[in-house]
Amino acid sequence: MRTRSDIECWLTDMDGVLVHENTPVPGASELLQTWRDQGVPFLVLTNNSIFTPRDLSARLRASGLVVPEQSIWTSALATADFLQSQMPGGTAFVIGEAGLTTALHEAGFIMTETDPDYVVVGETRNYSFEAITKAIRFIRGGARFIATNPDATGPSTEGVLPATGAITALITKATGMEPYVVGKPNPMMFRSALNRIGAHSETTGMIGDRMDTDIVAGIEAGLHTVLVLTGISDPAEIERYPFRPDEILGSVADLLPPEPVESEMPEGI
Length: 269
Description:
By secondary structure, the protein is α/β, with parallel strands linked by helices. It has helices at about 30-40, 55-60, 75-85, 100-105, 130-140, 165-175, 185-195, 210-220, 235-240, and strands at about 10-15, 20, 25, 40-45, 70-75, 90-95, 110, 120, 145, 155, 160, 180, 205-210, 225-230, 245-250. Keywords: Hydrolase.
């Protein structure tokens, strides 16, 4: 049976695991520093497709966490990676922000509003009726329907906001077509992350705070799964699911190596 001592690489969710409302979770900075000091390959994962890795690295740095942009893997990057493998040099009509459009451009895709191969829907704060109408018409005309993530709502200081899953539901209702969702809980996102750092599922752990995305996708990808209780899930939530993570911890601080115990010198020596 695989244990934590077998783990050589780590994937970790960001919100609720490393940060909570832009405040670092206790132990997160120390864990990241330990991984860097020990040369442990790791990636910070997020379903948010609005921001580029550079944006997210700067956001984490402002919170007191040092994560280089090459150590961040977003649903936008996973989507671009998937589409590049499916149709190199393809075209896409995109509803989304810079995180998604930049990832697709860097993957060699062309953004177009004329007969696109794909309609790609991601997170944005500016969903427009005009863009949604175009997406519906393109899909009804034969374009393939892709979504970066399934999250129906997202947080804001005023309350929840409609997110990618809510908009794709609207498009599905109008077209009869379900999107292929690349982000969590699709283990596809984890497999592309593993490829990014040259890791193998047998020796990689996944740290998350959600049973319905992080843990189920980690299990399906064959990873060692660690649920932390600093985000969405609590013990009552865990009991609702028919599967279990390999470990349940209070926070990422519980993953830190134990402090060495200094032995006291006997008196008189």
